[in-house]
Every structure is written in C-alpha cells, then in structure tokens.
Amino acid sequence: MTWPLRPRAWPLAITVPLLVAGLMTAVGSAISSSVLARLADDQEAQLRQLAGAHLGSLAVALAPHLARQDVWETFDVLDHARQAASVASTRLLIVTLPDAFVVAASDPMAYPVGTALPPALAAHLDGADLAIDDGRGVAWSHRLIGTGDAPLGHILAEMDMAPLLAVRHEVLRTLVVTNAGLTLLLAAVGYGLVARLLRPLRILDAYVERIRSGSVEPIPARFIAEESSEFGRLFRRFNAMAAAMAEREALSARLADEEKLALLGRLASGMAHEVNNPLGGLLTAVDTLQRHGADDAVRHRSTALLERGLRGIGHVVRAALVVYKEPAGAGALSAADLDDLQFLIAHEAQRRRTRLIWDNRMPESVAVDGTAVRQMVLNLLLNACRASPPGAAVVLAATTSAMGVSITIRDEGPGLPMDMAEVLASRGTAPLPQGGRGLGLWTVGRLLDRVGGGVDIEVGPAGGTAITLTIPQAERRPRHAA
Asked: Where are the transmembrane segments (predicted)?
C-alpha cells in the first residue's frame, strides 16, 4: 500500500503510534540531556573538590622547599604525591615560580628545571581553578603556594578525564537503549489500542460501502454485542437506517411494478382496440370475397381493404415489439422507431380526444440507446395525452445535431406541478413520490440518468408544458468516476 507524502492523509493506526514515538523521543532526549548535564556538573564539582584538597595539601608540603628553592626536595614531594594520587588519574604535576618558570615537574624531560612553562599551560595559572577539555579528555587544576601578597609559586596538575567520560558515555548508552525500548513499546501499544478503537469504524465503513454498491445489509448482532458504548448505539442507528432504506427500496420496486402493470394494461387495451377495429372490416372483406369473389371490382376493393387492415395490425405489433423487446441493434435509434410510437398511443389519444402533431426530423440512425429513448418518449406522450384537455394538441418534435438527439413533447394541459418537475429534473435521485404519484416521471429520470442525458422543462404562464430531452451520442456521453 502506497501512502501519500501528506501526513494528514495517513491512517490513524499509523499516525497515532508515530506521534507517540515522536513525543517519547522528544521526552527521552530532554531527560537524557538533563541527566547528562547533571552528571557532568556533579563530576566537575567532585573533581574540583578532590583536586582542591589534593593540591592544597601539596601546596602546604611544598611551601618550605620552594621558599629555599630546594629542587630535590620538591621533586621528592611531587614523586610521592603522584604515586599516591587518586584524583582522576593525575598524569602530570608541575611546580613553578610566580613568573611561570619551572622549579620541578613529575616529567622533568618534558619540562626541564628553569625553563618557562609553555603558554598553553601558563594560561591555566591565571584562569579558573579547574579547566576541562572534553575533546582531549584532560583537566587542569592549579593552586597558589604560599600566602600573602607575594606567593611563592604555583602548582599545576594535569588529570586524565577518560574514566569520567567513560561513565558519561555508559550513562548515555543506557539512556538511549532505555528510551528506544520504551518508545518502541509504547508505539506498539499505541498501534494496538488505536487498531482496537478503530475496529468499529472499519466495520461501519465496510457496511456503508456495501450500501454504496447497492447491497443494503444490517450490521450483525455479534458486532453490536461487542460494542456497548457509543459505537453500539451508532451500529443500532445504522441498522435502523439500513432497515428504512431496504423498506424504501422494496416500496420503490413494488410501486415500479404497479406502474409497469398499469402501463402495460393501458397499452394492452390500446393494442386490443387498434387490432379489434380493423378486424371487423377484415371479416367483412372476407365475407364479401366469399359471396362476390368472382367480381373483379369487388375482389380488388376487398383485397385492398384486407391489405390495409393487416398492415395496420402489423404496425401496432411491430411498435410494441420495438419498445418492449431489446433488439439486436439496441445501440441505435432511427426515425421509424419514434414514428412507431404513434400506433401505441393512438388509442389513448382517441380516448382523450387529443390531436397528435408529429414533427420527426431524425435521420435514418443515431448512435444512442434506442430502447431507453423510446421508453422515455412513450411515458411522456401518455402523460401529455392524459394532461391535455379534449380537442388539444400533443406535439412531438425530434431533431439531431452533432452532440446527439433532442426530443420535445409539448401539451396544452394546466402545467406540470413543481414537485413533479423536481422528480423529473433530479433524474431519479429525488425520493419517490407518495402513493406512486409521478412514478412515470421518476422512471423517465432514471432512464435519462442511464443514458447520460439532460432535461429542460418549460411551463407556460397560461398553462402547457414543454419537456425537452437531450441525449448525447454514445461516444460523447460523459464518463463519471465510480
């Protein structure tokens, strides 16, 4: 799994342990610095105290010999002092006169008697009583010999700081290991706790995703029993919402089935009327042929009547098959496909005494979903016939452009109500109307959303509604991310 570089986009199960680790690292660094600083101060204080006591006793022992400038006795005192020294492994002792000339040193080869003390060491005679160089691992301490305004000289000690620095390094390693262990332990504990806290959210996210994919399922009772706090209440509310959605989907399906059955009933009645009307004339023509078939004129008129009647019945049957049976070339719509709808609404138009004005300027074929378009237009035409008063006109105008097909259905009724217009304009996303009212418009909206089309609704000030469907061609249909 690849996470983006933005920390805000990281999962909580990762962010929280990282924050815990970061805080522990900061706290551990602060504590380590404090401990090391306190250790260094304590070591320096102890070293200053021990060095001061050691050099103070040496100054008392060296004062008589330095007053007589007895070099050998001075050497003897330094030698005994160096052998008995326990202050941070004293490596060098130097006794000088007030002018920094060497009187005696524990290493006479490096610092001969009567020579001037090197400037680097002479600087320690005028500075603090203790100077530490951590980089080189050494410390210098000095003490005046003699009292009064005219001191007899100085004693300078160079001490090895390696043991003390080793103690500091050991303490530092211990702190680093301890802090790292505690940080990893707390980060792991934080990860486990956050994963446990987020488990209900993951369960809820999984079932919400199922709803988004079209499967409404309640959260099982075993998950609710495990969560007795706020998440338990959230799960129960989610189940109540899922039950309401399932009930709504069932109601939608039932209303859709009822609307479909009602539409099929009207169409079946219309088809029966359109088929039954020419049947009487066909039977009359057959009877005439049986009685007067020898007469050429009678035979010609009768066969012509039979042909027209059979063609009319064929048109009605073919129109029903085109609309309600998915043909092999369902991806295209032709002008003849729209013209066939006249036969399916002819009975409704006659029953309502409305006139059909047909203005179909479509070419032979357009690359749109022909089945969905015919179903939408058929629903709107039937609604227009029912909404129009007797003697009014229902108009269909169909044109094409480079973008797709534009079909307008116009009636002279009182005007489409606002709530019904919203059902159609929402393209099937608005809630279903109560009692099944407007379900046909809701179905048209769903089909329109399926083909990626648009709708424009115009209601005149004195009544009348014009609904224009715009259906893009298949290659121009907008593609939406899931």
From this structure: 171-194
- Would you say residue 294 lies in a domain? no
Structure tokens at 85: 């020294």
CATH number for the domain harbouring residue 151 = 3.30.450.20
Q: Are the beta carbons of 406 and 367 closer than 8 angstroms?
A: no
Instruction: Report how many domains make up the chain.
Output: 2
CB environment 29-61: b (16+ within 10 A), e (fewer): eeebeeeeeeeeeebeeebbebbeebbeebbeb
pLDDT, tens digit, for every residue of 376-418?
Answer: 888 898 889 888 999 899 999 999 887 789 999 999 999 888 8
Q: Is 349 in contact with 373 (CB distance < 8 Å)?
A: no
pLDDT at 232 over 80: no
Q: Which residues pair with 132 in a beta bridge?
A: 139
Per residue in 322-347, pLDDT tens?
455 544 445 678 888 788 788 777 77
- Cα separation, 471 vs 476, in Å, equals 10
Range of the domain at 148: 10-170
Tokens linked to 174: 């211990």
Strands 102-105 and 355-360: unpaired
- The rounded distance, in Å, linking the Cα atoms of 107 and 88 is 18
Boundary of a domain, candidates 147, 170, 193: 170
